[in-house]
Structure formats: C-alpha cells, structure tokens
Amino acid sequence: MQQLDFPVWLRVEHWLNVLFLTLLIRSGIEIIATHPKLYWRNDSRPGTEWARFTRKRMPKDKLYDTLDEEESYSSVVALPGHKQLGMGRHWHFVSVIGWILTGLVYVVLLFATGQWLRYVPTSWSIFPTAWDDLMTYLSFDLPPLLPGQPLDALQKLAYAGVIFLLAPFQILTGAAQSPAVEARFPRYVRLFGGRQAARSLHFLGLVAFLVFLAVHLAMIISWGWPELNALMIFGEVRDLNAALWLSLGILAAVVLVHVGATVVSLRSPRRVQQGLGWIVNSFRRLVLRRLISRQDYARSKLSVEHRVNGKPPCSTEYKLMAVHNFADWRLEIGGLVERPMTLTLDDLRALREPHSQRVLHNCVQGWSSIGEWGGVPLREVVEMVRPLPQTRHLCFLTMQDTGRDEPSAEGAGQFYEVVDLELAREPQTLLAYEMNGGPLPIKHGAPLRLRVETQVGFKMAKWIERIEFVSGYACIGKGMGGWREDNVFYDKDVEV
Ligand SMILES: Nc1nc2c(c(=O)[nH]1)N[C@H]1C(S)=C(S)[C@@H](COP(=O)(O)O)O[C@H]1N2
Ligand SMILES: [Mo]
C-alpha cells in the first residue's frame, strides 16, 4: 500500500494554502464591509437582511444610496481595510487565481501519487469509527489513528470535506456572483437559490473555513505541535527546534506579505490597481469575456423596490429639464464617428418600438435587484452613427457632477464611464429610457441610462448627456476608464 508520508510537494502546497486562504479571508471581509448585510432574496430589499455587520440604520424618509451604508473595517481583519472595496476586490481575485491553481496542482498530485488515500474513505466503516472518535475527543482524549495512516477517522472525513466539498463550494458560489456568469447562465445561479443566496452561502463557506482553521490548530496542539510541525517542514519527525524556527519563519513571511499588501494598497492604490488589475484582467478576458447576456426573468420576479446607487444631478438646469419631462434634454453623439448626431427623447422613442428586458442588476457593493428596462439597443445607435475604424470604446458622459451631487463620495467631477465597442454591440446592451413599463425615474437615471448586463452596476452610467466614440481613454479623466476606476480604483472591465 502507498505510504502516506509528507512529500515535499504536499508541504509546499500546505504553506501556500496558508498564504492564499488568509489573503482570501481578509480581502473577502473587505468586500463584505462595503455592504455588510446578507439576504436570501434577489431583491436585497432593505429590512429583509438575515444578518448585518453594521450598526448604521438607514433613514426611511430620505433618498440614500448604498455608499451611505458602507462600513469601514480595521486593517487587522480586512485587506486593506478603511473602505477600499476596489483594493479588496483586486486582492480577492488575484488570490483566488493563485488558490485555484494551487488547488489544481494539489488535487492532480494527490491522485497521481496515490496520496488521495489519506483523504478519500474506502470503506463505510469510517462513519461509525468517526463517531466513536468524536465521542473520544469530547471526553478530552485522543482516538486511535487509522492503521497505516497519519489521521484518525474523524480527521480524515473533515479534511476530505474541506478539500472536496468546501473548497469547490466556495469556488462555485463565488462564480455564481459574477454578473457575466449570471447573465449567460441564469439557471446556474438559480441552483443556489439566486444571487443573494449564493452570496450568503459564500459567506457561510467563509465561516466554515474559519471554524476549520480553529479546529485544525486545536488538533495540532493536542496531538503534539512540535512533531506535526516537523512533519510539515522536513517530512519526518526530526530537528524539532529547527522545524519550529523554520515554520515561524514561513509564518512571518506570510504576515509580511499581508502587511506589505495592506500598506501598498492604502498608500499607492493606483499601482495595485494597475499591477493586480493586469493579472486579473488577463484571466477574465480568457474565461469570461465571451459570455453574452441571455436574461429574461419572469414578470413576477421583478423587485418591488429596485435599489439605487448614486445621487441625481441637483443643478437647476437638470431640475428644469425634469419639470418639462426632459423636452429640452439633448443626447449628443460624437467623436470618432462618420455621422455625429444630436437626438431628443422623442427622436429616441421614434427610432423603434422600445426593446425591453427583465434582468438582474448587480451592484459592485454586493446587492442586487431585478428590473425591466426599455429603450433602444445601443448597437442600433452605433450602426446609425457609423464608428470610424479606429474606434475602440464608447465614453458615456453624464449630467452628474459628483462633487456637487454626492459630496460624501470620494473624488469630484463629471461622472463618466467607458465601455468597449464589443460590449456596446451585444444584444442586451441598452440605452434605457423606461423602467418597469413607465418612464425612467429620476433616481434610476432619467432621461437616459445605460444597461450592460454582463457587467457590475457602476458601468451603467445614469443621467447621460453625451456619448463619445474614442480610440483610447488614457486622456479622459485620470485615464483609468471611468469615474469609479479613476477615483476609487475599481477595475474597468467588471464581469465579476
Ligand atoms: N451618473 C451615475 N451613474 C451611475 C452611478 C452614479 O453614481 N452616477 N452609479 C452606478 C452604480 S454603482 C450602480 S450600482 C447603478 C445603480 O443603478 P440603479 O440606481 O438604477 O439601481 O448605477 C450606476 N450608474
Ligand atoms: Mo454599484
């Protein structure tokens, strides 16, 4: 029979796992901080959360948005802490790539070397034995190890559960939160009970990992830290002191990575955004870019109260337009096009019967709602104005001046977002002037807003006044591809 020892790859994998899991946990907590509430239903209706990690109470009589609900957690628990969702996302996604690659190598080697026998039970008798082991532990005693194996029955089942159930569960519930995956495979998300249920389950998976870590450490202490530690360092029980120092050295290196990641994220977020963004984007392009939205939720699934993000323009000009039902509003389309245009709302309505779609909206903060949007598919407008060959992106400029309209937000200036031409041509990319069968309400972007269903919500500019076709965006704003990218360091392409 295969000897279940501690080959070098197993030891390396173990310590890499420590690094990636802890990075995932801290960056995950940063992501929760931005909307510290958990729901079961897709509409994330205020008041229906089953768990909340904040003391803030939101007003019932005033328009507030999700940014007002955000919490600032300490860097001790969150990477990097202090309301840096953009940074938390970059670290979470980079770590998840590292963790999945580590996991794949691990599983392949486990099966290639016969070491899988240490985790995969080969007889039903393991269950009654594990029960006996549990009773033994509860009476503060140590159960016998399985013959010829490094673990007792209960430990074997616990490790098998973490490796073959919990880890895949976290990956699957994580994927179920990607707007691109949801848009292309709405049924996949339904498997978990919807977007918010997937988010809640992902959180419970985090709790399960924390419990596992606590029990794992307790076990090591009760079975003999020095010897087990030596096994994880040298692969055999020898040089206990050297093993101790080496393991402390590895842990110090892990802590150093965490401290370093936290400090650069807080001090030079732009560098982290560019560096990690490059890694994450390469994977995202490879895996998610070809997913095209195919959503059509039933009318009965529409959220009674669609959540809101961003505060409407409060200029007199905008208010006057609103009073006149936006008769004076104009949409300018220009830049690298053959036929620049200026359209009124009536012109847009006259283009065609409104196209409508019932879709799930994912805010980067974590909430979701389902709405019906009506308007003109953007690709029809693109065909009308005829982009020049060098066009790569569309820049959506809005009537919102964030410094004036949302003073509590970080950053100032005109809100804009850049979307790639290929996304603009997808069937469910929409210039919407209707919502749930009526005119688009002011808080949702009247008179015109964008819908790009494979992306996270912040790409969908509201209160649009101009669309500029461009070949690059380095000269727009701070050059990162949108107001949020410029000011709060989000990633430009947000299929997750
Ligand atoms: N002009 C502008 N558009 C915006 C925003 C904003 O702050 N300003 N917020 C974005 C974000 S973060 C989200 S989640 C969606 C919210 O759309 P909703 O309020 O219709 O739900 O709008 C997006 N469009
Ligand atoms: Mo958002």
UniProtKB/TrEMBL annotation:
Domain called Oxidoreductase molybdopterin-binding: residue spans: 325-470
Subcellular localization(s) per the UniProt record: Cell membrane
Protein's name in the database: Molybdopterin-dependent oxidoreductase
Pfam families found in the cross-reference section: Ni_hydr_CYTB (PF01292), Oxidored_molyb (PF00174)
Transmembrane segments: 15-33, 93-117, 157-180, 201-223, 243-266
SUPFAM superfamilies: Oxidoreductase molybdopterin-binding domain, Transmembrane di-heme cytochromes
Keyword Transmembrane helix: yes
Keywords of the record: Cell membrane, Membrane, Transmembrane, Transmembrane helix
Location of the Cytochrome b561 bacterial/Ni-hydrogenase domain: 6-226
Topological category with respect to the lipid bilayer: Multi-pass membrane protein
UniProt keyword Transmembrane helix present: yes
